[in-house]
Amino acid sequence: MAAQSIFDGWVRHSEYVAMRDGVKLAVDYYRPTKEGALHSKPLPVVWRFTPYGRYQTGADGKVSDQNAILDVSSGSNGKAIFEHLLQQGYVVAQADIRGYNASFGISEIWLGPQQGHDAFDLTEWFSAQHWGTENVGMLGRSYLGSVQLMAASYASPHLKAIVPEMAQIDHFSLFSRNGVLRNDLVVSWDKMRSAMDVAAIVPKPFSVAPVMADTSRADLLTASDEHKLNTRLADSILQMPVRDSTDPATGTKHHIESSVLFKLPQLEQSGVAIYHLSGWYDDSIRDHLTLLRNLNNPQKIHIGPYFHQDNFGFDYLTETRRWFDYWLKGKDNGIMDEPRVTYYVVGQKPLEGWHHSSQWPEPDLDELVLHLSGEKSGSARSFNDGTLSYEEPQGSSDGKDVYLVDETLSLGDLITRNTGAFRRDACPVSKNIADVGEVCYLSSGYPDLSDTYDAKAITYTSAELRVDVVVAGFPEVKVFVSSNREDADLFFVLTEVTPEGVSQFVSDGAIRASHRSLNKPSFDNFGLPWHGNFSPDLTDLGPEPALISLALKPIANLFEKGNRIRLTIAGYDAKSGVPLESTEDKKIIIHMGGDYRSNLSLPIK
Is residue 344 within 8 Å of 303, Cβ to Cβ? Predict the structure, then answer.
């Protein structure tokens, strides 16, 4: 619903705000104007806490427009939402994280309790200003989404509503896929930080800008000197291979202490209203659904056919403003009377694919169990061309597929995959949702995997489907595995195969076999297997069959009549994690039948 603008301009202010320990953080805030006059009455504040820079110089190294809003991204990290909120009667603000950009202090960790304390202090500062009210909100995507959830777990009494987009709550799972380390994120982050956090004496183009009063840049340069002591992510994460590892920089169990997943009681106690925005192809999707499942806070969720930077088919500006209007201004606009869950079934037409529910997964789903079989499917040029059978294997014999690990295959590096860079031309990050075509709703957009991936791996493929099948939940694999080595990395990929043989990515998961032990979680995990990834639970693999139980990423996908369902299993990914020390002549054996009945379970509507 369109809303008429109340204000037509704004003025930017910039200053340092001292935290409880005296460390000063750089803060910019924007107050609305009308016909050039600054609005003088208090308004709710909506703010972002960012490591990416609250403000930058222009191409000439100078700040030419003091009132500009930084536009370095899209969606909740872009300038359009700030402009919209300003026009609708909000003060908006953003602050540099401690140890980043113009803020003082040292960053010893990626994101954790310190950011929670700082967010608490800044929220209290905003609510105490004469131009702000006691109702404060936060928004932002990725890191900016994650820090909102951390902030909410520290329960400022004035933080009333947040809109986390593509946010994570499990620090270990962000950097490790059940023991398979995500080195690409570590390397990328350290490279970005080194280029951004140490300011030069002579301003560089598009570099961090000082706060307004710091005309000599003295404060900025002093803060930048402190940043030289920041801990490199590689020096921390690479030395924490399990969930209960001790961080060498802080001496804490950082994976646990910095995870909102283990602060759910505190987050619930805050009462903060949460509007989740996520996508089926973003790494965060499971985290958002876990919060929806476990918290009694007021919550809504929107899940689209999105990668990390997408929100097409959704009026993000209006919906975000309505959320804050309800929780920060007390407007009874009906948003809480609308369905709690909105999600898209990939493969359905744009006008048909949006579905609504009170919870997710929806109740009373059926279960389709497909059993791994050595019988040839005749559909794949893979190592084995196995079958997914509707019938459970009969007899006591143990069927086997022996696979020699191929070190050349990859789905691509995880950052590229998570951002959906390979389909950006077809599905651009655009403020105009009409720019996005129907193809972006019909599949993930991955290139055909039949030759590049499936052919180098081991596959199990169903017969052609006789009816349309909608999978809407967590696919789960239970596979018995052995090896001629003491450990193995296992990559599971669920695809939909067309009659022409095109293998289209749907979902995936990964695990290092030594991390296969299951633990009882402290939260509701949908009844799915949960790997604690704790050091006492690590178990060698070896020649005897071991059960790997793993929930893949959740998905809502239409498998069309005439297509096939395929599970592909690989033992290596050249770009998606740090491999084991040696894979030469490494064999992975998949066991089927007898006492080792491997299967794929799919929740269907």
Answer: yes
| pLDDT beneath 70, residues of the chain | 1-2, 195, 395-396, 430-434, 582-583
Same domain, 454 and 334: no
- Asked if 178 and 128 sit in the same domain, the reply is yes
Q: Give the pLDDT of residue 1.
A: 53
458 token code pair = 């081991």
Tokens of 603: 């929740």
Please give the pLDDT value at position 432: 61
Q: Is 296 among the domain residues?
A: yes
**Quick one: CA dihedral 520, 525, 528, 531, positive or negative?**
negative
**Contact 127/36 with Cβ under 8 angstroms?**
no
H or E segment to which residue 294 belongs: helix 285-294
pLDDT of residue 441: 94
CA distance 297 to 26: 31
List all residues 6 or more positions away from 581 whose beta carbon is below 8 Å from its beta carbon: none
Is 385 within the bounds of a domain?
A: yes
| Rounded distance between C-alpha atoms, residue 470 and residue 368, angstroms | 11
Dihedral pair phi/psi, residue 598, rounded to 5°: -80, 145
Domain boundary among 294, 321, 338: 338
User: Read out DSSP for 439-472?
Assistant: HHHHS--PPPHHHHTGGGSEEEEPPPPSS-EEEE
On whether both 176 and 133 belong to a single domain, the answer is yes
Could you tell me which residues come within 8 angstroms of residue 511 by beta carbon, excluding any fewer than 6 positions away?
Answer: 177, 178, 179, 180, 489, 490, 531, 548, 550
- Say which residues have a Cβ less than 8 Å from residue 423's Cβ, sequence separation at least 6: 307, 440, 444, 445, 446
What pLDDT, on the 0 to 100 scale, is given for residue 580?
Answer: 79
Residue whose structure tokens are 């820079």 = 53
Same structural domain, 248 and 381: no
Look at residue 298 and tell me if it is in a domain: yes
Nearest-angstrom CA–CA distance, 254 and 457: 36
Cβ 10 vs Cβ 33: under 8 Å: yes
The CATH number of residue 286's host domain is 3.40.50.1820
The phi-psi region of residue 308 (left if phi > 0; otherwise alpha if psi is between -120 and 50; otherwise beta) is: alpha
pLDDT in tens, 329-357: 999 999 999 999 999 999 999 889 999 99
For 319, the token pair is 């919906």
Q: Identify the three-state secondary structure at position 254.
A: helix
Counted domains in the chain? 2
The 10s digit of each residue's pLDDT in 138-148 is: 999 999 999 99
Sign of the torsion formed by the C-alpha atoms of 354, 355, 359 and 360: negative
Q: Are residues 257 and 114 in the same domain?
A: yes
Task: Compute φ and ψ for 81, nearest 5 degrees.
Answer: -70, -35
- Both 328 and 387 in one domain: the answer is no
Q: Which domain holds residue 522?
A: 366-411+446-604
Looking at the fold, whether 37 and 89 belong to one and the same domain comes out as: yes
Domain harbouring 511, CATH code: 2.60.120.260
Q: 265 preceded by cis ω (within 30°)?
A: no
Predicted TM-score of the model (pTM):
0.96
